[in-house]
Amino acid sequence: MTLIDRLAAICGAPHVLTGAEAAPYGRDWMGKYVTQPMAVVRPGSVAEVAAVLRLASETGTPVVPMSGNTNLPGGGKAQGALVLSVARLNAAPVINRAARTATVQAGVVLSHLHDAAAAHDLIFPLTFGARGSAMIGGVLSTNAGGSNVVRYGNTRDLCLGVEVVLADGRVMNLMSALHKDNTGYNLRNLVIGAEGTLGVITGAVLKLFPRPRAYATAMVAMASLDAALDLLNRLQAETGGAVEAFEYMPRLYVETHLKVAPNAREPFSVPHDVNILVEVATTRPDLAAVGPDGSVPLVAQLEGVLAGLMDEGAVLDAVVAQNEGQRREMWSRREMAAELMRHFPAEVDTDICLPLDRVTEFLARVLPHVRRIDPNARDFTVAHLGDGNLHYTVLPSHHDGRDEDAIRAAVEDIVQDLGGSFSCGGGRTPWLWMSCGRSSARWTRAIS
Ligand SMILES: Cc1cc2nc3c(=O)[nH]c(=O)nc-3n(C[C@H](O)[C@H](O)[C@H](O)COP(=O)(O)OP(=O)(O)OC[C@H]3O[C@@H](n4cnc5c(N)ncnc54)[C@H](O)[C@@H]3O)c2cc1C
After folding, report:
1. Residue whose CA is closest, atom 50 of ligand 1?
2. What is the mean pLDDT, run by run of 10 residues, along the chain of 448 residues?
3. What are the angstrom distances between the C-alpha of 118 and each of 122, 135, 195, 283?
4. Do the Cβ atoms of 294 and 273 come closer than 8 Å?
5. pTM for the full predicted model
6. Which residues 6+ apart lie within 8 Å of 181 measured at CB?
7. Do 212 and 242 touch, CB atoms closer than 8 A?
8. Could you tell me which residues come within 8 angstroms of residue 184 by beta carbon, excluding any fewer than 6 positions away?
9. How far is the CA of 382 from the centre of ligand 1 (A)?
10. First vs last C-alpha separation in the chain
């Protein structure tokens, strides 16, 4: 029997794809990395995942685990490898309302978990533009962040337990629902963020939170990034840490959005360089109650902080969403980031993290440094500023692989110098058993 026959015997022939049927699994969402998997297998149970991995182990077949295939840095590159898709492990999430947990299979789409939690008046707070495609196995494997990290943390902070199938087919059951467990080493946290190099995640126990009763959302033009940090800190103090999102979009981002997105509008009557999307939320009925004049105390709280900073000259302009439609418009501008990047054919993209008080210094230093390599390069940034995570992209003036490597190294040198991390996105280390094969040179430096 061939390997394909043996995979079909485990999962059923319709769930083993080859040739043109397998090709889409080797192509990333941006269309930047195009590979041809040897085959795709779609197990329908944990036992089938285990049997597939046992077979792969016996035959020395490289495996690339896959969930929604929305990762951006090429984690799904699978030339000649067997793609193991967990998409069929997608039973309805089991919500425990009293314990505020969800027990979820790896193939459940993130937005489906949102819907399941909402039916119980709860939320799973992780959210980002690809929530309609990304799956639980993928968000765990990349330790995804999204827009709410400033309030709820990364996926690792939202996970209590995982189930993982190791490369030899053994199933490691770490499906604890405990908030504190000091029994031995924390294997769960090792598996989360491992990008599939340690095994295939098949299920998880995740934390849920009460659904906010009101949001206050605004686009704010700031005099500088340092002034924006001041706004964040004041809002956190004023609201008891209720800032849910704090997103930075510079002028080039807004301009590109205006060019690319249908029906896009300027956020302000005059253009500004430092544009912040801020969102505050409350579960408190008194702060969410609509007054006789239509005002909401939470919104008034946000407006009060903004007015104070406007008097000081730190806030240059602000637009507060008056209804859900306006809030969605603000969010759609921010959530189009990945689509906007498609607008630039050649780029050196990085997904980095910096201490909050070093972001200004990074942006001041990095472009002059890059321009020593390519004097006409430009840069394009969008950031989850509340947690220091920047999607910093250099747009070189010409295509030259060596220059691009040098530019990436220049960016990462400054990040390292400022105490930052070069890796905040997921998906760089491709194959199960073949960890670190294609990571940045900085990876080796960081662990040595
Ligand atoms: C429009 C857009 C916006 C985004 N915004 C953000 C953002 O704000 N913050 C952020 O952190 N990320 C963001 N991302 C990237 C995001 O992290 C990934 O898209 C997502 O977490 C990956 O989930 P996925 O199901 O698509 O995983 P995949 O892309 O399928 O896989 C991701 C990695 O995990 C491995 N893997 C997949 N499933 C498993 C499994 N079951 N077991 C073990 N390993 C597995 C894969 O081999 C791969 O290395 C964005 C992506 C897009 C397209």
Report:
1. 130
2. 97 98 94 94 98 98 97 90 98 98 98 98 97 98 96 98 98 96 94 96 98 98 97 97 98 96 95 98 97 95 97 98 96 94 83 97 97 96 97 93 95 97 66 38 36
3. 5, 17, 28, 14
4. no
5. 0.92
6. none
7. no
8. none
9. 18
10. 44
